[in-house]
Specification:
Structural class: mainly beta
Low-confidence stretches: 200-211, 238-310, 316-343, 345-366, 375-388, 532-539, 957-967, 1197-1205, 1216-1226, 1428-1446
Distance between the termini: 41 Å
Strand content: 35-45%
Number of helices: 14
């Protein structure tokens, strides 16, 4: 048909000549038919003619200069070839445009891993270790300084000092006792002050015997559990000791030993029971257990090695916990006179249980002097791995050695140390020394004879016994009579030697007691019990773990659309309450598709400003508003898709609300890329070994990244920029650093090293880059993690195209070769599944990110065939990629650094494998080095495979990779552009970041300036911030004032002053950071309820916001609407932004949202009203509910198909439910008439199992036209035979196949005909799809109306008709039929409706219908008549498949059993054809 469109406006009616609108652009769109035609009205007559367009429904868009746009739905018809439209003139002009733009899509990638390494335990020393107490007592000095130094690589925690408080008249003090952390390789100077106590008197120092006071430096570190350590500092003065000299021959008996003071006994510090009770091995240096090279403190010199042997022998073989404690008096402590001490030398030997000591004591003693010298030498060294344990060792062992020396001085023969004399001393010697013996403490001749008559102890001779008794007698007599030194070859002990030894022993004993031990023997027992544990601990060192974080930014360029509305207001009044509701539809189907796009916030420019209720534009002014529209990936999943972007503009002018539909702009959306990002972080790191004096060179390790585009679009301008590694967790304060020194793209070194530019990445392609890093210490990485955050202009995480992010534990960069995956770039051998040996198990391709399983093979043998060639025999249970590893136990690899050539031999075939796929690693400890040979290869057999490796023996340094030099000046910037802080937090932490560490401290000047916050809200600058050398970030605090005023959130700015560049840095970006102070005196705000309901014709809905408390000032908050099933823009409601003001003192405010009352029959609809989160910037706290749902109840009726019955009579009837405002309140039907001459036969139902045809006859009632007179049924029975059943109602008596049917039931192989009362017949047909559908049941009744008999045919819904059924009534079986009220022009009193019929296998069909309150049989049941003579002609989308339209040739058959027609559905394989 042809359609002429005539465009009129006000001038057509009020101007002379009645001009039409010229140059109007008219666009006619039909999405189903893919029709879009645009014509322009002619200059003279203002018309446009569309030629040869189908009769159908169209969307009409008209635009003309100086006029409001027009957008409406029309239905074309041959009866209406002309269409007149009216356009309103306007003086507000606008231009709508949508253009493609690009934006940068950024992703912050955060990858983390734990770095673990072993370092020596922290070695803390203090100097001096002894302080002259006498100078302090005499007042010569009043303060002393201690230098406390941590020589280790981990932090010493909780460093404190405990001062002596038991001095009679001096008081010691420091500025602080809590020194806190002592960082690695750092020192602190501590000053101890002394002063006299109030009302104290000085004591004479000469009367104090062995006086000492102790200050303890305590600290701790983590090594499994918390380890505590103490360093004593002695306040000591000269010891004055004079022997008691007795003249004359009389001998003064020596009193029994006095017990230790109670104060000492009450502070025991015994070793743990589990350690004390462990049996000590008895051995000597000739035993293997005593010759192990134990190393403590990290030393490896020959002196230390020997010293450790001695210490091990001393502690292992000398009876540590079996030494005397409180039960025996330690040597040199027992009596007040040297005579008593001499006797106690014998008693002490008894207490040491010599039967357990034997020769071990002697050999330990012989080693004692070397031990002492060794420990003294170590204690004096200030090396980074020295250990305070040497002090404990020295102070516990040395008095033991001194005691043994004192005993030897008394006994006179070192061989007595190896004598088993326990019982001999108790039974023979001890009685003669008793005070009540014959000669008292001396031995008489008779007593000597008794001793010599007794068998000497094991290990001694009678002569040794005689000499010993003689020496003891001479010593006791000489010392009693004043002869203190031996002379004239007299066999006696030297008093001066004994005295010096006793003084030293007493000094050590005082120190032990002051530290909480019972005596120096108790200290020895404790240290010896812990030596093995501590020795092993020191040997392994401390496992320190730090968490490393590397932040990288991935950037890719994407396509979006910039939608711009330009408005010019030439009126004399301002334009107010402006808004635009953007609508996006599918360019092919016309289906709404706004949900497939993310729409950004509007940006106003020009004279257009934001005001309450929308935009404002002054008179005679212009402005524009723009949106960024980004399609989601679902908008074009695999190929380009077309969309139309338009919408509706709304504003108010001179009190008149204007709504303007925009002509949509077609755009093309291309598919997005899908980024799959895989990181490969190398596990093993070679760096400095902290246990050696030599500083080993760090070997670069790699952080690889493979990016694959798994989508259907190109990733444009892809690049990744990396930050330097940062230590974010460091429990033990480990001194270690990491740095990126270079990068490579594929196989090429790139510059600058931190940014890798990949360029465009096509679909299904991959690219690989690597960053090369160094570590200051050796170790290994574990516990990897990778996360990301998408930063796009709209802040919408659903726009992300990074669809996969993984991180892998990289064992080695190797090569996949002899394969399509070989791209010449190294691939990734990883340990994907954790195991105790960290064997690699997966190989990732750098070309495609495909991965291959790697199995573990066995090395059967390895031997050297020449000086630089190895032959390795292997076998594997699997073919494919196999990994082999063997430790070189026989030392063939000790001088080898590289495997330079490798060949695989399989049978008679040889294959050269890449050099990356065979390598040698060295695992070092302080005793030896272990070498491992690794091979990874792709084998094709499970038989034995031989490998021949050419080795480099000398000068095997790895070729160093040349990296571009970094800029000389590092860049400084803030870590973030904004920081948020609660007002009551006291301060905000701001982070300054440096691109790389500097060799010197760098000072940065920062300034501040007010935003909404002023100087009373925060501590304003300037600030001078120092970034220490070697560090890349520093955190500083800015104080925040916590007031009690309720106020809006405030902000201020912190700036990096450009003068900072004078400090040798480049000021980068961001160089300004905004600090947002979040008021803590805020008010909670929410909706009064979560849902509101309104009638469509109510005009508006009222919503209420509530405050939790009253505000002192007016507060304005923002509320936004969003579509649910209702559409904004004035279609269903007035959408937009609402600025709601709470007057001061009020806690509830209500506002209205306008509701549009349309005449469209539709479902109930809803939309959402949301409190915008930016309202928190007004100082309020957005509570819940912060979203309210508004339900709009439709005031028209909607009709849907009801699962009941289809009736075929003079008028076909499809019963429907009628629903008004969501409530079913009455039943109506879809009715349509069948026209035709008497004798015509039509198909009613046809499916795979049954076909029902109806023969029509004329009636005596012209209104009805015709009625059904006979019904013919073609039906399959259960054995597949075809049955023909003719049913006729003559005089309302059923005839079946020409015979009057009076019996109750007729059955033939499942096809049954049963007569029922009221002139009805029930027909049942078995479904030929047994088990899928139920039997088909239908009723044939005789209907008498106005003296005319006719047949009514009913099919009960759900009774087994198959879904693909067709026919005059079968086509409506279980399909969607809906009806909506219409605005079409009908005859007066007729209510028009649009009826939509949608079969699953057919296009949508729409019909115009009229509504009546009765059906064909005169009952008062309402009916929608479609295609009837009353409704007139209608438009059918598919006229060749029309039922309702009145053309039925497709359904006409020749006879009652004819199946030859267009929509036959019978199963032709069963041959039920007539």
């Amino acid at each position: 048909m042809n359609l002429t469109v005539i465009v009129e406006d006000e001038y057509t009616y009020f101007a002379s000549g009645q001009p039409l609108v010229n140059n109007a652009a008219i666009t006619l769109v039909n999405y189903q038919r893919n029709i879009r035609i645009t014509l322009t009205t002619e200059r003279d007559n203002g018309t446009a003619k569309f030629v040869s367009i189908p009769e159908d429904r169209y969307q009409l868009f008209i635009e003309a200069a100086g006029h409001l746009s027009l957008n409406q739905i029309i239905v074309t018809s041959l009866n209406n070839p002309k269409l007149t439209v009216f356009m309103q003139r306007q003086t507000v002009t606008y231009t709508w445009s949508v253009t493609p733009v690009t934006f940068q899509d950024n992703y912050v990638l955060t990858i983390e891993a734990d770095f673990a390494t072993n370092v020596p335990v922290p070695v803390v020393t203090v100097t001096p270790t002894e302080i002259d107490l006498e100078e302090l007592e005499l007042g010569f000095v009043t303060s002393v300084q201690l230098n406390i130094t941590n020589h280790g690589l981990i932090r010493a925690n909780g460093t404190t000092i405990e001062l002596p408080d038991n001095h009679p008249f001096l008081e010691f003090s420091v500025s602080t006792k809590e020194l806190g952390y002592l960082d690695p390789l750092s020192s602190v100077i501590l000053t101890i002050h002394s002063s006299h106590k109030d009302n104290s008197k000085r004591a004479l120092p000469a009367v104090l015997i062995g006086s000492a006071y102790v200050a303890n430096i305590a600290y701790s570190y983590i090594c499994g559990d918390l380890q505590l350590r103490k360093l004593p500092v002695l306040f000591k003065k000269q010891i004055f000791f004079q022997p008691t000299l007795i003249s004359g021959p009389s001998l003064i008996p020596i009193s029994r030993p006095r017990p230790a003071p109670a104060s000492r006994i009450s502070r025991p510090r015994p070793a743990p029971a589990s350690l004390i009770s462990r049996p000590r091995p008895v051995c000597s240096f000739t035993d293997s257990s005593c010759t192990t090279d134990f190393k403590f403190s990290g030393y490896s010199s020959s002196t230390l090695s020997f010293c450790n042997k001695c210490i091990q022998a001393f502690f292992t073989c000398f009876p540590g916990p079996t030494l005397p404690g409180s039960g025996c008096v330690p040597l040199g402590l027992g009596g007040s006179t040297p005579l008593k001490s001499t006797i106690d030398s014998i008693r002490w030997l008894q207490c040491t249980e010599p039967n357990k000591v034997k020769s071990a004591m002697l050999q330990a003693f012989l080693c004692g002097h070397d031990i002492g010298e060794c420990i003294l030498e170590l204690a004096g060294k200030k090396k980074r791995d020295a250990n305070e344990f040497v002090h404990d060792v020295y102070r516990s062992m040395h008095p033991i050695i001194l005691s043994i020396n004192a005993a030897i001085e008394v006994l006179g023969d070192i061989n007595w140390l190896s004598v088993d004399g326990e019982s001999w001393v108790s039974n023979v010697v001890q009685p003669v020394f008793d005070d009540n013996s014959e000669a008292g403490i001396l031995i008489s001749t008779t007593e000597l004879s008794t001793i010599l008559a007794t068998a000497p102890p094991n290990g001694s001779t009678s002569e040794m016994v005689r000499t010993l008794i003689e020496r003891l007698n001479n010593t006791l007599h000489g010392w009693s009579s004043g002869q203190l030194e031996p002379s004239n070859n007299i066999n006696m002990a030297s008093f001066s030697k004994f005295e010096k030894l006793a003084e030293e022993i007493n000094s050590y004993n005082d120190e032990a007691v002051s530290n909480g031990y019972l005596s120096y023997l108790d200290l020895y027992n404790f240290v010896s019990a812990h030596y093995s544990k501590s020795n092993l601990e020191d040997e392994a060192g401390v496992c320190a773990v730090v968490k490393i974080r590397i932040e990288q930014e991935l950037a890719v360029t994407r396509v979006a659309f910039s939608a711009k509305l330009e408005i010019e207001n030439m009126e004399s009044s301002p334009l107010v309450q402006g808004s635009l509701e953007i609508l996006i539809v599918d360019g092919n189907t016309g289906i709404r598709a706004t949900h497939l796009f993310a729409i950004g916030d509007e940006k106003l420019s020009g004279s257009l400003t934001a005001s309450e209720g929308g935009w404002s534009l002054p008179s005679k002014a212009s402005g524009s508003v723009e949106w960024l529209i980004v399609p989601y990936s679902e908008a074009a999943p695999q190929s380009d898709r077309s969309y139309d972007i338009g919408g509706t503009v709304m504003y108010s002018l001179n009190g008149v609300n204007v709504t303007i539909p925009l002509l949509p702009t077609p755009v093309t959306v291309t598919p997005d890329p899908s980024l799959l990002v895989h990181y490969f972080w190398e596990k093993y790191v070679i760096g400095d070994d902290p246990f050696t004096d030599k500083i080993e060179v760090s070997v670069p390790f790699t952080l690889g990244v493979a990016v694959k585009n798994g989508g259907y679009g190109t990733a444009s301008h892809l690049q990744i920029t990396s930050g330097q590694p940062e230590i974010v967790e460091n429990e033990k304060g480990l001194l270690v650093n990491f740095k990126i020194i270079g990068a490579s793209l594929g196989n090429e070194i790139i510059s600058p090293s931190l940014t890798v530019v990949f360029g465009d990445l096509a679909p299904s392609s991959s690219v690989v880059a690597r960053w090369h890093l160094i570590s200051s210490l050796q170790g290994e990485f574990k516990n990897y993690s990778a996360t990301f955050e998408n930063i796009n202009p709209l802040g919408d995480p659903n726009l992300s195209i990074l669809d996969e992010l993984e991180i892998h534990e990289l064992i080695r960069n190797v090569k996949i070769y002899d394969s399509s995956e070989d791209d010449g770039i190294q691939d990734f051998l990883v340990n994907e599944h954790s195991d105790i040996l960290s064997y690699p198990d997966t190989l990732y391709s750098s070309k495609s990110l495909e991965h291959y399983s790697v199995s573990i093979g066995a090395v059967l043998s390895i031997h050297s065939t020449s000086l630089n060639t190895l032959e390795v025999r292997t076998i594997s249970n699997n073919t494919g990629w196999v990994y082999y590893r063997i430790e070189d136990a026989r030392g063939m690899l000790h001088n080898t650094a590289l495997a330079i050539n490798s060949t695989r031999q399989e049978g008679n075939k040889s294959f050269i494998i890449p050099p990356e796929n065979s390598w040698i690693t060295r695992h070092s400890n302080r005793n030896n080095d272990n070498f491992y040979l690794h091979i990874v290869d792709n084998v094709s057999t499970t038989d034995e495979v031989m490998y021949y490796l050419d080795l480099c023996i000398t000068d095997c340094r790895v070729a160093e990779m040349s990296y571009p030099q970094s800029p000389t000046a590092p860049t400084v910037n803030f870590s973030h552009t904004a920081y948020n802080v609660d007002e009551d937090k006291g301060s905000v932490k701001v982070v300054l970041a440096l691109s790389e560490p500097s060799n010197a401290n760098i000072t940065i000047m920062l300034t501040t300036n007010d935003g909404f916050a002023t100087g009373v809200d925060y501590a304003s600058g300037p600030y001078n911030i120092t970034i220490p050398a070697g560090q890349t970030r520093v955190i500083f605090n800015i104080s925040i004032t916590d007031d009690r005023e309720f106020e809006q959130n405030e902000d201020f700015h912190v700036n990096i002053d450009q003068s900072s560049s004078l400090s040798g840095v480049i000021v980068g970006t961001p160089n300004t950071a905004i600090v947002n102070i979040l008021d803590n005196d805020g008010i909670n705000m929410s909706f009064s309820q979560s849902a509101y309901t309104t009638d469509e014709n109510a005009g508006f809905v009222q919503l209420t916001l509530v405050f939790s408390s009253k505000a002192a000032n007016d507060i304005t908050v923002k509320v936004l609407t969003s579509d649910g099933t209702a559409t904004g823009g004035g279609i269903d409601y007035t959408s937009g932004q609402y600025n709601i003001t709470f007057p001061s003192g009020q806690m509830r405010v209500s506002f209205n949202v306008s509701i549009t009352d349309d005449s469209v029959l539709e479902q109930n609809e809803d939309f959402h009203v949301n409190i915008d989160q930016s309202s928190s910037l007004s100082g309020v706290i957005v509570g819940t509910p912060n979203t309210a749902i508004v339900n709009i109840l439709d005031n028209e009726s909607v009709m849907k198909l009801f699962n009941d019955t289809i009736i075929a009579g003079p008028v076909f009837e499809v019963p429907l439910n009628m629903m008004s405002n969501g409530i079913f309140n009455k039943i109506t039907s879809l009715c349509y008439e069948v026209y035709g001459d008497a004798g015509r036969t039509f198909n009613l139902i046809s499916d795979g199992c049954v076909q029902v045809n109806a023969e029509y006859s004329a009636t005596n009632i012209p209104l009805f036209g015709n009625v059904i007179s006979k019904v013919g049924v073609l039906a399959y029975d259960i054995v597949g035979s075809c049955n023909q059943i003719e049913i006729d109602m003559k005089d309302c008596v059923p005839y079946v196949n020409g015979v009057a049917y009076n019996s109750s039931k007729y059955s033939l192989n499942g096809v049954t005909v049963a007569r029922r009362p009221k002139h009805r017949v029930r027909v049942t047909v078995p479904n030929c799809n047994i088990g899928v559908h139920d039997n088909l049941v239908f009723w044939i009744s005789c209907k008498e109306m106005l003296g005319q008999n006719m047949i009514e045919f009913r099919v009960l819904r759900g009774s087994g008709l198959q879904p693909d059924a067709h026919g005059l009534i079968g086509q409506f079986w279980n399909i969607n039929v809906t009806a909506y009220s219409s605005t079409a022009s009908m005859e007066q009193g007729v209510v028009p409706f649009i009826v939509n019929v949608k079969h699953p296998q057919a296009p949508l069909r729409s019909f115009l219908a009229d509504y009546y309150n009765s059906v064909w049989d005169g009952s008062s049941k309402p009916c929608l008549y479609a295609g009837s003579s009353q409704a007139g002609p209608i438009a059918d989308v598919e006229p060749n498949d029309s039922v309702i339209e009145g053309r039925y040739s497709e359904y006409e058959v020749n006879t009652l059993f004819d199946s030859n027609f267009k929509y036959n559905r019978l199963n032709t394989t069963l041959m039920c054809l007539i």
